[in-house]
Specification:
Blueprint (H helix, E strand, L loop, with lengths): L1 H4 L1 H4 L6 H7 L12 E5 L5 E5 L1 H8 L10 H21 L6 H12 L8 H8 L1 H11 L10 H8 L4 H4 L5
Antiparallel strand pairs: 1-2
């Protein structure tokens, strides 16, 4: 759905693992097929074991295995999410950084100890996040930094310092 609404950023390149899983009707515990094979143990509880048949099918989607550090994995997943929230602020889809962060924490389970995507970026430094995103933009347009955020980073501003409404 996001790919249809924002094709310039969200369009996939080739078949994704989730598409393959769906086409193979591998819905996880729902039908006892997924990344794992689900079998009941002696007590009737589902036990999961890696299903090698799907591992082979998924391997065909991968160009080559890549070793990633924990930090790289976090960046690959968090930066696009954070940049989308910054776009929501830029386009006035949400009224304040606090509103956006609360929605993420309570709505999608964003780690509360990070305070939300905008608080997280503020804590890292917006310029640091921009630099990380710029290094990854060749992978996908998801890593394109919104103009307002880039301007804020250049001025040393933060979402909570600049955009909080006056009480």
């Amino acid at each position: 759905m996001a790919a249809e609404g924002f094709p310039e950023r969200m369009a996939g390149q080739g078949e994704a693992a989730v598409d393959l899983m769906h086409s193979q009707q591998r819905f996880g515990q729902k039908n006892k097929l997924g990344f794992y094979a689900y079998e009941k143990d002696k007590k009737g509880r589902l036990k999961k074991q890696v299903d090698e048949t799907i591992v082979a099918k998924l391997a065909a989607l991968c160009a080559h295995p890549v070793e990633l550090s924990d930090e790289q994995i976090i960046d690959y997943l968090m930066i696009p999410l954070c940049l989308e929230v910054a776009r929501c602020i830029e386009k006035n889809i949400v009224a304040s950084p606090a509103e956006a962060d609360l929605a993420l924490v309570y709505g999608i389970g964003f780690p509360p100890f990070l305070g939300g995507a905008l608080k997280y970026m503020d804590s890292l430094g917006l310029q640091h996040v921009c630099d990380k995103a710029d290094a990854l933009v060749g992978i996908s347009p998801l890593y394109q930094v919104p103009a307002q955020m880039r301007a804020m980073a250049a001025q040393g501003e933060t979402f909570y310092g600049k955009l909080q409404p006056a009480n």
